[in-house]
Amino acid sequence: MKIGYGGDYNPEQWLPEVWKQDFRLFDEAHIDTLTVGVFTWGLTQPGPDVYDFTVLDRIVDRAAAEGRRICLATGTGAHPAWLAKQHPEVTRTDFEGRKHRYGQRHNSCPSSPVFRRLSTEMARRLAQRYAGNPAVIAWHVGNEYGGACYCDLCAAGFREWLRLRYGSLSSLNAAWYTTFWSHTFTDWDQIEPPSALTEHWRGPDHTAFQGITLDYLRFMSDAMLANYRDEKSAIRESDPRTPVTTNFMGLYRPIDYHRWAPYLDFASWDNYPPDDRSPARMALAHDLMRGLKDGQPFWLMEQTPSVTACRDVNPLKRPGVMRLWSWQAVAHGADAVLFFQMRAGRGASEKYHGAVIGHAGRADTRVFREVAALGAELSALGGITLGARTPARVALLFDWDSWWALEISDGPSRLVRYLDVVTAYHRALWTLGADLDVIAVTAPLDGYDVVVAPALHMIKGDLAERLSAVAFRGGSVITTFLSGRVDENDNAFLTDVPGPLGELLGVRVDEWDAREPVYVNRVRVGDATFQSRLLFELVLPQGAEVVGRYEEDWYAGTAALTRNDFGAGHGWYVGAGLDCAGLTWVIRQVLERHGLLGPYPDLGEVETTVRVTPDGSRLLFILNHGSSPVDLPAVPAGDALLPGDPLALEPYGVRIIHMIT
Amino acid sequence: MKIGYGGDYNPEQWLPEVWKQDFRLFDEAHIDTLTVGVFTWGLTQPGPDVYDFTVLDRIVDRAAAEGRRICLATGTGAHPAWLAKQHPEVTRTDFEGRKHRYGQRHNSCPSSPVFRRLSTEMARRLAQRYAGNPAVIAWHVGNEYGGACYCDLCAAGFREWLRLRYGSLSSLNAAWYTTFWSHTFTDWDQIEPPSALTEHWRGPDHTAFQGITLDYLRFMSDAMLANYRDEKSAIRESDPRTPVTTNFMGLYRPIDYHRWAPYLDFASWDNYPPDDRSPARMALAHDLMRGLKDGQPFWLMEQTPSVTACRDVNPLKRPGVMRLWSWQAVAHGADAVLFFQMRAGRGASEKYHGAVIGHAGRADTRVFREVAALGAELSALGGITLGARTPARVALLFDWDSWWALEISDGPSRLVRYLDVVTAYHRALWTLGADLDVIAVTAPLDGYDVVVAPALHMIKGDLAERLSAVAFRGGSVITTFLSGRVDENDNAFLTDVPGPLGELLGVRVDEWDAREPVYVNRVRVGDATFQSRLLFELVLPQGAEVVGRYEEDWYAGTAALTRNDFGAGHGWYVGAGLDCAGLTWVIRQVLERHGLLGPYPDLGEVETTVRVTPDGSRLLFILNHGSSPVDLPAVPAGDALLPGDPLALEPYGVRIIHMIT
Amino acid sequence: MKIGYGGDYNPEQWLPEVWKQDFRLFDEAHIDTLTVGVFTWGLTQPGPDVYDFTVLDRIVDRAAAEGRRICLATGTGAHPAWLAKQHPEVTRTDFEGRKHRYGQRHNSCPSSPVFRRLSTEMARRLAQRYAGNPAVIAWHVGNEYGGACYCDLCAAGFREWLRLRYGSLSSLNAAWYTTFWSHTFTDWDQIEPPSALTEHWRGPDHTAFQGITLDYLRFMSDAMLANYRDEKSAIRESDPRTPVTTNFMGLYRPIDYHRWAPYLDFASWDNYPPDDRSPARMALAHDLMRGLKDGQPFWLMEQTPSVTACRDVNPLKRPGVMRLWSWQAVAHGADAVLFFQMRAGRGASEKYHGAVIGHAGRADTRVFREVAALGAELSALGGITLGARTPARVALLFDWDSWWALEISDGPSRLVRYLDVVTAYHRALWTLGADLDVIAVTAPLDGYDVVVAPALHMIKGDLAERLSAVAFRGGSVITTFLSGRVDENDNAFLTDVPGPLGELLGVRVDEWDAREPVYVNRVRVGDATFQSRLLFELVLPQGAEVVGRYEEDWYAGTAALTRNDFGAGHGWYVGAGLDCAGLTWVIRQVLERHGLLGPYPDLGEVETTVRVTPDGSRLLFILNHGSSPVDLPAVPAGDALLPGDPLALEPYGVRIIHMIT
User: Which is the catalytic residue, given C144, C370, C377, C537?
Assistant: First the structure.
């Protein structure tokens, strides 16, 4: 066994001559894993009562015969044209209230009984047919679940979901605070999906009733989860063991992946970073995906070998970058490295998307050569990394509910975006080299010395107590402005801000200023001064020590940054939108206290992670994300699993040290 | 009697313990006036045939028992959920043609018979119930009327409105100039509301037929006025005397407040300036509101004590600013100073909106302390300002028809915005300290020495004659580019520009240039040079004296600014988009001629106004809008009604001098 | 005979007194040609079964009596209100799926049987009535055809169009590459118009299926062409000879004018450049329009004498510019110079559009005086230019299919716009003074020494062979990045890029980088260095000589610009988004080789064209587009047909030299 290598493959688009060419090139590139059938519904069910697996049989048989492993998709990510024509209910109604007709993909209403029945039946038949095939090593349900629907079927589903959640209209009215603006609901049927035609203006983030919108986000995530679960159950009827997954999208707002994770046998995701300056962001996404299943390895289900097509501007991955990012995935827990796509399509909207094999079918392109070289390298490495875990003592909390609640709020500032805050804190941790887990607010915190919870807007359940326990036993908890504001229904706590976190943090916040991005208030911390922007909470210490104070404006001298002694540990509160240097200063204090700085905290473009293999080996991954060579001061003793001088990394260089401990 | 102090209060959202806490805090802050019931329709009519005033009774009784004065709202600004479900006709159809379902507020179709019947019935029943209560000192009908509806009921209402206006289709066709683009209407039913589905593209300002769009704006304003009048009439059935108002929004385009004003017993408005650098703009809005009822005092119905919530960025009012802006309202004619809101809501879209009492219910916040201090100050002042009038000899014309006509025109420049022009001229008057009235074009002009009419695009009735009369008897009239262009149907005058104003102004304009904002043409006036932007009319004097000429481009040397001797006075024409310095130069000439400069024309951030009380006392208000202290050269002899050195104002300082005359 | 002079005239909007005034002013300005009836459908057919030509008779009779020539419009560019009310099918459904109601103009669904029947009937009746009138010298069908409709009638029309094009669903599925995303169509009725409700997101350029969108663009252009052809056929029933046209809009994307051209008897177009710095762009548009009919003279059907109204900012044409641009039209092949509009409308959306006669009806305005002066000049010139041709040896290929295909593609860059590329290459040709034809990709290439084909994305038919033949016989062919990518169905060629052009160009392209506009990669060419932006193809020479190489980034040293010897000529490939200087360098090499530089290649603002009259005379037009005087080094011997020193051009000056050859 080794790291799976390959990707999305759609031979149904091609003639047999091309298949033959493909497999020759796959051998040349050490391709051993193929994801097939992702958009084959129209092929496998060409009409209402007709199923035809001829072509898919041929694909699976051929791949199996060549020794390839197959990740078999149910193909339900796009419904066939005949289905939309025969049952208009299967298409979605969008946020603007417009009923769509047939087109695109990811186009099915999750509440449609017809869609649910037929997609499940497709999964059932596929499992019946291919369950016994040893080449099939995983099931891939649907594709990149997401978007939303606002049709009447979803309205009915929403009401049913609400009935289960609240039991009574009086509970619902209380949760949604409907006395405001005369909104008291006296019948379930009065409730409408929150859209441009009801509670919203300007767009999906501007709502008159946060509670309604928040619940609809939760409902829609659950409704699609039900679609996934339908198909998984149907697969399990014939195939009790082969793992089932679906491809997630990393930092994707519409779906609460934490609520989905229990139903996946392993996580997998598609890595399309917004630009080529995103190594920290990719690391965050990898860690979030790994955290979905308690640290269990995941698959990198898709990445482009070269270019994307869907952006306004699609830059080319420079030499070495595809390899570097592939190893980064492994460094963060990937057991498979897969591409979209194996061969470039001729037509439609992804014909210019990068592929291992281009339109001309050449093996002598730069891209193919790099893919083949990485294939050889992965083969040489073998299976040592498989099943390895990350021994993190730092946790970063990530919470879809806080994300949603924060960004659909009116006030204090639309410019404060959840991901911006989270990625800023993560970047500081990443720069300083801490091994970290990204976890849900419901995850156990016992194993961590440091818990960072940026913009923890919503406090649910016993979270405040568990955070306090971390500090009490000597750990450090860091949180920020706009934390501890609302309960699980997005109703403000009727206490001082930061609500249930007040005791842990030893502060109170009565007021806050919000400003345009051009406005800067400096924060003095000891001898240093940092900039802060966007949001400025006026922190009133209630026992906490003042670490930083504002220097500008009428609240100059007011606390902006505090640290509270709590038990044997600390509760930090960052009340201002500190800049990168400021955040790095705070995080460094905390990591140093716990001895958790990485080996190269001052080499900003060098990333390291540690993985511990099932047999207890410790692997140190060293990745140079810079375009310049880097000399390392030292590396731990051990065997180098990749070629190259361990102390001198070339641009985009990668090393793996099998540490002697 | 004294200035009313308090604001919007929604105890129906809270439990009795909280009520108790509220009233203790109200006492502490000298709160004597509460606006209640603004969004209680769902509470008072929980179903089609069910009325329930239990909670409202309790609120009113409690407030009355505590000696508070009540501004009682009819609560019809948002309809209940059951109503929208039972009668879908009550919800609006938007400009895009989308029928809305239940949600938000200000959501009722003004033409819906069901809405009209039930909202009127609600007002009727409230009046029947509370008319005799001496604590009820005013009725507050609906809330912030505005928006628009484009449904079929409104289409029918529009056709009826047109029939009354035009009598015949041939008159209508002539008014709308329908021969253009084959638009002749041969049946009333062919007429559609002008929307994105009919005459418009890009948005509400881009129309193929200005006449249709203009009339729809007038109709929609009238339709909502009818809603207001319905409710007022129903109140008057039981309560013949208590004054009735609704809260206006200042410089708000969709509603022609001049057409509404006769039906209000006093004006009131909600002051939410776009930013904290808007003292002149607020002054303009105050004066506009005061001018609605011929100078009669108005109420400041809402302002935030601290922050708004609906903006992208919601900055915090700094210490002293809430007090300063409250006194500014009084300086311009307010008899009440009220907040939105007394207690912060827990949930929904205004939970982060500032409030006198925050979520924690504290009295020791900065905001509460400032509110309480102002309460004490207002109590100490007593009733001296009540009923006082502003003795202005300068009038600024403000005209919704010109606003609409200018901004829905194709050409010459979409960048020339009515409010920009008006606020620029007002700012010059404000900076120079002139006491002024902002009045409708139909208001008598006899009492004024100076009439400023920026962008007076449309000339209706005898306006040109009345303006000429001002100049003839020795006054000064100032108008600008794009004035005198169209008649009341937005049809161009078939004469030289500026149409009926030509004789008064002694100029003719055949052509004009429009340019992007980066382009500047300098205008030389004597030894000074000013910049002009956006629009450049080539002014051909026909008797007028040239005061300023363009310096740039092929029309260098052409007149840009003229003054015409007319009778004993002057008609000024400003053909170019002059900068602030240029406008101030022009306005200063005029004010100096009439001896109407304020006491501190060179102290840009010091505002003054004079009010004359019913007993003839003259009160001079002095307000320092700057963040620095200011020394005044002198102040009139008199008693200082607020503490502090009259000659040395602290930042945001306020003085009131009871002048000895 | 002489150049027609006049324009759009709508006396139906006016009373007889005004008509009289108009005709007196027309005489004063040498106006001899009037376009009448452009929006008269509501006038000529006031009801379902009522036709009334009384007013139109009067207009035609009066004009004829005064000796004016008439371009008679069918008036079907806007349908009457009664028609939309009685037959809602005639209004369009927009891209967002919204059915429109009555409003605007250009508002008819092209597939509506009712619209087709009644518009055709109108043309038939007009022709029956006015065919014999010698004053009627041309028919003007509809007006500025364009926009699109997405209604069910168009859906049905689209399916019929597809059936004719593809014959079978299997052909259609192959052409559209429907295996991708499960899109296989199994019944024609499953096919929907590609809109915001089906295949599109973000807007008309973002589609899941390029093939569907491309075919809908073709269908919609054909559907409107059918409308035009309907009317033309109806005219031909009574009038077999008078030429028929419609007014095009130059560089207008929605309509493939090359497919329309065979059905026009002469081309005509409306020239409203985006700003006053567009002489090259106007030249391109003139040449494109002339190229539609193989070089046959066209009419300038509309231009404004002064200002437009529909822009956000509508600048004024400075003195001399209207004359200059009128002569530019003639220099490029116009046989008529017409204005929109003769008299300014009083109301609606064009009341501020410039006109020969303004609202006041004056003859002493600058604009009228310039119009009259040009009228005198045209009269003095007489008929010498009529029917003249342009003797170009340079061809610029212009292709609506490539335009559409390029701009609806996902990847590599949305920022690369077809017109930007074409206008950049054209500008280089224009600056260097080459006489050129702008032609369709189907036009014969035999007569050209140089063929420039920027962004020739789609290669159809025998185009590659014909381009090769140009080079083979010694010519030069220039093409660029993103050429040779797709076949006529927008499917990628399964060969190396640039597909069928590879042999001619001697290069291969495996990969390309796309970047934001701020990124610059320099390209070294000999001793010079040019900037390139947006798109960077990595050109691998396969026989071609490398002329320029990238200087930056990891592909520094890679070829960016190549020239291939092919037969006796050259195939140039420009792989980078070169700046203006770079393009000019390339074009200059090529023009110099063929001796085709214009007389003043270094005088950037001086434009020249040559026209050869039917009797073989050669006329050299010299136009100074600059605001400064220019001295010419020399002019060819000949007679000056316009006044002024031939060697010294005033700002905006024009000369015509009747060359002695």
Answer: C144
Using the Cα atoms of residue C442, residue C448, residue C453 and residue C456 in order, give the sign of their dihedral.
positive
**Does one domain contain both C275 and C143?**
yes
- ipTM greater than cut 0.90: yes
- Give residue-wise pLDDT tens across range C273-323: 998 889 999 999 999 999 999 999 999 999 999 999 999 999 999 999 999
Which chains does B contact via 3+ CB–CB distances below 8 A?
A, C
Query: Does B167 lie in the same domain as B93?
Result: no
Q: Which strand ranges, in their side-by-side order, compose the sheet holding B654-659?
A: B606-612, B618-624, B654-659, B638-640
- Known catalytic residue at C302: yes
The answer to whether position C599 is within a domain reads no
Whether pLDDT at A633 is above 80: yes
Residues of B in contact with A189 (CB under 8 A): 85
Residues forming beta bridges with residue C525, ordered by sequence position:
C528
Confidence bin at C64 (pLDDT 50/70/90): very high
Q: How far apart are the first and last CA of chain B?
A: 25
CA A490 from chain center: how many Å? 23
pTM value surpassing 0.95: yes
pLDDT in tens, A327-358: 999 999 999 999 999 999 999 999 999 999 99
Q: Is B128 on the interface with C (CB under 8 A)?
A: no
pLDDT tens track for C555-590: 999 999 999 999 999 999 999 999 999 999 999 999
pLDDT tier at B276, thresholds 50, 70, 90:
confident
Which residues, in sequence order, are CB contacts of B533 under 8 Å at separation 6+?
B515, B517, B519, B520, B521, B577, B579
For residue C414, the chain A residues in CB contact (below 8 A) are: 311-313
In a domain, residue A192? The reply is yes
Considering the domain architecture, whether residues B489 and B377 belong to the same structural domain is answered as no
Strands (E), A217-357: 244-245, 247-248, 268-270, 298-302, 334-339
Tell me the pLDDT tens digit for each residue of A144-201. Answer: 999 999 999 999 999 999 999 999 999 999 999 999 999 999 999 999 999 999 999 9
User: Are residues B374 and B246 both part of a single domain?
Assistant: yes
Chain A residues lying within 8 Å of B80, measured CB to CB: 182-184, 186
Q: Give yes or no for a contact between C550 and C560, defined as CB atoms under 8 angstroms apart.
A: yes
Last residue of a domain, one of C214, C237, C255: C214
* C-alpha closest to that of A282 among A295, A269, A266: A269
pLDDT above 80: residue B245: yes
The phi and psi torsions of C62 (rounded to 5 degrees) equal -60, -45
How big is the CA angle at B317 (ends B312 and B323), to the nearest 5 degrees? 145
Domain boundary among C214, C229, C258: C214
Neighbours of A21 (CB within 10 A): 15
Q: Which residue has the tokens 């599109």?
A: C200
Q: Which domain holds residue C294?
A: 4-148+221-381
Size of interface A-B (CB pairs under 8 A): 177
Establish if C410 touches chain A: CB-CB under 8 angstroms. yes
Nearest to A39 among C181, C201, C489 (CB): C181
Q: Do B266 and B348 fall into the same domain?
A: yes
Q: B169 and B110 in one domain?
A: no
Domain count within chain B:
4
Residues C187 and C312 in one domain: no
Residue B59 within a domain = yes
Give the model confidence (pLDDT) of A56-109 as tens digits.
999 999 999 999 999 999 999 999 999 999 999 999 999 999 999 999 999 999
Rounded Cα distance between B643 and B374, Å, is 12
CATH number at residue C538: 3.40.50.880
Does a structural domain hold residue A166?
yes
C349 in the same domain as C260: yes
Which of A608-618 are b and which e, b meaning 16 or more Cβ less than 10 Å from the residue's Cβ? bbbbbbeeebb
CATH number at residue B317: 3.20.20.80
